Amino acid sequence: MRAFAYHAPASLAEAVAILRREGPGGRVLAGGTDLLVQMKERGTVPRYVVSLRAVADLSHVTFQTGRGLVIGSRASLTDVITNRDVRERYPIIVESAGLVGSHQIQNLGTVGGNICNASPSADTAPPLIALGAILRLHSDQGPRELPIAEFFTGPGRTALEEGEVLAEIIVPDPQPHSGGSYERYTPRQEMDIAVASAASFVILAPDGTVSHAKIILGAVGPTPLHARAAEAMLVGKIPSGGLIEAAASAAVSDARPISDQRGSESYRRHLINVLTRRTLTRAIESARG
């Protein structure tokens, strides 16, 4: 491994100051479960690394009515999975975070790192997009907020600007009569990455019709994809088995899969149909209470 400089700031302000001072060629280290593997096995060695491990004010997982759920970018996957508010109010986040690697990986890895790695198969991204999460980003110019749906620009690429750090993930309050579900398919049951995945989130109106629907597809495009045709098909209608089947078929048209060693394009399209149908069914059941 080539030599690199290592910085361990004690605060977010110090971290962004280092990034601004050192300039291009650096990487931010949170849990390290992705970056360290890339450095050891793929030869991707940055010029310098800025570790967030000593930045205590990025490790929180808090919920407040009116503000929603706030996840610090240093909070581990285990911190999120075991948090009572997350388990009670945002089970779709628990479903997805609980699929990332082994328990050991979850103890080290972070939701922030899973997002910033920007893998098309990242498990936490589709549910957070479906929930309308907002990212709070910090640089030495101050904070800015960005919808997570606008954060991913390509495989391994994000909208983070030079010298900018993800500080918090903010998820809106759960709405009454809402429900969500996430599911992925992997060749192995555990510790594998998704061949295809889907997150569905719905809100039901008092008359039982769908007032809001989000279906986000993972691992079937360069970034997580909105199944907009399927979403539009659901809104204003009372959910039924036939409607769910039609929406699942429509979701396939929004997928942009490729063929690789883990699965063919046609197989991934089949999986999207199945996963969308399953997650929509569970999301609607949850919204109905």
What does this protein look like?
- The chain is an alpha+beta fold and 289 residues long.
- The N and C termini lie far apart (54 Å).
- Helices cover 35% and strands 25% of the residues.
- The radius of gyration is 19 Å and the shape is globular.
- The strands form four sheets. The protein has a five-stranded antiparallel sheet with strand order 4-5-10-6-7.
- The chain has eleven helices and 14 strands.
- The longest helix has 24 residues, at 265-288.
- It has helices at residues 12-22, 35-41, 77-82, 84-89, 91-97, 103-108, 111-116, 125-130, 228-234, 241-254, 265-288; strands spanning 5-7, 26-29, 48-51, 61-64, 68-72, 134-139, 142-147, 152-154, 157-158, 165-171, 178-185, 196-204, 210-218, 225-226.
- Helix 9 runs antiparallel to helix 10 (241-254) and helix 10 (241-254) crosses helix 11.
- The chain folds into three domains: 5-51, 2-Layer Sandwich (Uridine Diphospho-n-acetylenolpyruvylglucosamine Reductase, domain 2); 56-171, 2-Layer Sandwich (Uridine Diphospho-n-acetylenolpyruvylglucosamine Reductase, domain 3), CATH 3.30.465; 178-288, 2-Layer Sandwich (Enolase-like, domain 1), CATH 3.30.390.
- N-C termini distance: 54 Å
Radius of gyration equals: 19 Å
Tally of extended strands? 14
Helical residue percent?
Answer: 25-40%
The CATH class of the largest domain turns out to be Alpha Beta
Secondary structure layout plus pairing:
Layout: E1 5-7, H1 12-22, E2 26-29, H2 35-41, E3 48-51, E4 61-64, E5 68-72, H3 77-82, H4 84-89, H5 91-97, H6 103-108, H7 111-116, H8 125-130, E6 134-139, E7 142-147, E8 152-154, E9 157-158, E10 165-171, E11 178-185, E12 196-204, E13 210-218, E14 225-226, H9 228-234, H10 241-254, H11 265-288
Parallel strand pairs: 1-3, 2-3
Antiparallel strand pairs: 4-5, 5-10, 6-7, 6-10, 8-9, 11-12, 12-13, 13-14
Helix pairs in contact: 9-10, 10-11
